Amino acid sequence: MTGEEVIEKIKSVVGDDIQKGEVNLGDAVVFVAPDSLQKVAKTLKEDSDLNFEYLSDIRGVDYLDQDREPRFEAVYELYSFEHNHSVRIRVGLEEENPSVPTVSDLWKGALFPERELFDMFGFDIPGHPDLRRIIMPEEWEGHPLRRDYPLTIEDVTFSHNREYKSELVKSKPPTR
Amino acid sequence: MGLIDSAVDALETEVNNIKLNVKDAVEALDHDYAGAIYDSILTTKLGKVVGWAQKNALWPATFGLACCAIEMMAMANSRWDVARFGAEVFRASPRQADLMIVSGRVSQKMAPVLKIIFDQMPEPKWVISMGACASCGGIFNNYAIVQGVDRVVPVDVYVPGCPPGPEALIYGIIKLQEKIMQEAGTQGAKKRVA
Amino acid sequence: MGVTEQGLLERDKDTMTLNMGPSHPSTHGVFRIIMEMDGEVVLSAKPEIGFLHTGIEKTSENKRYDHVIPMTDRLDYLAPPMNNLAFCLTTEKLLGCEIPPRAQYLRVIMCELARLGSHLVWLATHALDIGAMTIFLYCWREREMILDLNEEISGVRMMTSYIRVGGVMKDATPEWLGKVRKFVDYLPAKIDEYELLLTNNPIWLDRTRGVGVMTREEAINWSLSGPALRASGVDFDFRKKRPYSSYENFDFDVPVGKNGDVYDRYLMRVEEMRQSRRIVEQALNHLPDGPYKVQDNKISLPERDTLHTSMEALIHHFKLVSEGVNVPEGETYVPVEGPRGEVGFYIVSDGSGVPYRVKLRAPSFMAIPGMCKMMDRSFVADVVAIIGSIDIVMGEVDR
């Protein structure tokens, strides 16, 4: 099914639970609130025309510099091998206590990416069996991929972001 | 009365000074004396033989971290055969190795592991820092990479490149062999076996 | 609780915990597995990753698009052109530009040579771990030829950065194409040599058949991809189902397995090597003429000789070098069939010359939980075979 047909079918099946459905550069994109994610995901997986049996990836985005509400977003990419189509689910999350329910009971492949969302962005994933840091060391503080986390506290000798550099140099601690 | 007290104080200070000076002088004498024994003709030649044996049988420990490890494997293969320079086997256990080639970027989580492996190697041991990331952090100047492995372990030879070709790494090993021969039989080599 | 008899009697579990640590010759990178074992049998395997975390995604948010390309080289460092291609395809989809056919064919040649190089390293290290040490030397002999071809076309043995936004770095000379043809004619006999040594070898069959089995439903649920998914019976290859970069013009087969064990994955990759060689041969035979990069000077640099005469070329050159390609706002994702599976970059752009968010979909990262599930109820010796068969590269797992 093409992108438009996928969006039509999704709207007909779970139209009340999604906020918006659109086709963006040929890809079908669906906007969902965090509370209805599990219901929408289950329907997308089990419906026979859609049959999204494969979870490709879960990503997190921090839209701090673009000044939009909600600040965070979790993006899910689903495929169907039988029908050869795909859909992207975008879930907007709040700035305080960003939390999105787990989909690891539907797709076991979600275990690692959700831990990475917790590690790198600080999203809370209720229902995840083993939520702890995966890429950074266990005792690391802070969530590195957020936009307000500095890239480094060393002196960056050459940078296109000149304002960024001068703030770092001002607040540089004496030794490293 | 005051005069006698001040005279006694002056005498005590002088005696303490002499004691300190004598202690320093005896230590310096010991140092030179020990150096004189070590650097005599007999033990220098013996030291050079030991250095020759060490340089021709450097066994690297497998410490391939990232992309540079692939070039290290290429160095160990038949085209650029490093076995002809003495690195016959890459020992998996650090207790049986005497050269650690840090090949690849060292992240913050890996730095304690690197230190543990380095500590487990018996003396005398050498470290080659292979590639730009191990020497200075490379193209990754950020929160996650240790900016140069010499913040964690003492490095003997730095091999630049991203990744350095196998011929560059072999040149680094040859330079290390020259360094071992230069240090052989001198205080430098003695410090390594301490 | 010490190692006294009383202490051993007081232990509340009778399994042994074995740490296959980050520095290990068989883990193909810095990867830690903590195994609970009952004798020789592994009851559960817990993976720990993150020992090679480089912060590439965050660094890419401060660099221009063409500066990110050398960083993508270092992610999956066994097949660098594949990452370059995934990044460039996504950027070009956001830009909405058409790549000329000659550039597409050259990209196909570089990517298939990279796939060959990666599979040669996989075969070398997998066989070395299982015990067949000769294959290690044989495979590297062919890989050195591929690295020589890389060095001639781009100047660097491994991290070529040959594929750029808008086309490729520079044109291929007839001499280089002749060398690729000589390599392509030389290779089939060598792949036959590897198969002669391994495919019907009773030791190899004993160690790999029936080991690490993953059924079709499990493979889909645990998000495996690439040869591991196809070995479990799913016929899906992005080059066939969602063709990109002119793959629809090539005639090649996609092997699909039945059992989903280590032996099937080995057969998948060896057959993929043969098909890659076939694709390169077809690309050489039908290589079209024309420009090797998009002629739009807002995307790719103008030719150096025009800088002496044309004012627009000079201005475009200046803008491209100082500000970078201005990519329109939006977000998209283009998957590419890499040697390990589905590789892709999810790029969010805010309209400037610096990407807003770059996320790599790493096939090895998604395969690790599935791999550790395969290790349940297997022997310690099988753990090594399983890790080799999934072919993980820690550069892309930890990014």
What key attributes describe this structure?
heterotrimer; A: 176 residues; alpha+beta; five-stranded mixed beta sheet; 4 helices; 23% strand; globular; C: 399 residues; four-stranded antiparallel beta sheet; three-stranded antiparallel beta sheet; 16 helices
Please give the order of strands in the largest beta sheet of chain B.
1-2-3-4
**Uncertain residue segments of chain A:** none
Please work out how many helical segments of chain B DSSP would assign. 7
Q: State the share of residues found in helices of chain B, binned by percent.
A: 40-55%
Number of strands of chain B: 4
Shape of chain B: elongated
The mean pLDDT of chain A is 83
Structural class of chain B: alpha/beta
Shape of chain A: globular
How would a textbook summarize the main sheet of chain B? 4 strands, parallel
- Strand-residue proportion of chain B: 5-15%
Measured distance between first and last alpha carbons of chain A: 56 Å
Taking the sheet with the most strands of chain A, its summary is: 5 strands, mixed
| First-residue to last-residue Cα separation of chain B | 56 Å
Element-by-element helix/strand order of chain B: HHEHEHEHEHH
Mean pLDDT of chain B: 83
Q: Write down the secondary-structure element order of chain A.
A: HEEHEEEHH
| Count of runs of 4 or more consecutive helical residues of chain A | 4
Architecture overview:
The complex is a heterotrimer of chains A (176), B (194) and C (399). Chain A is α+β, with helices and mostly antiparallel strands and 176 residues long. In chain A, 24% of the residues lie in helices and 23% in strands. In chain A, strand 4 and strand 5 form a beta hairpin. Chain A is globular, with a radius of gyration of 19 Å. The model of chain A has no long low-confidence stretch (mean pLDDT 83). Chain B has 194 residues and is an alpha/beta fold. Helix content of chain B is 52%, strand content 8%. A four-stranded parallel beta sheet of chain B has the order 1-2-3-4. The termini of chain B are far apart. The model of chain B has no long low-confidence stretch (mean pLDDT 83). Chain C starts with a helix and ends with a helix. Chain C has a four-stranded antiparallel beta sheet. Helices cover 50% and strands 12% of the residues of chain C. Chains in contact: A-B, A-C, B-C.
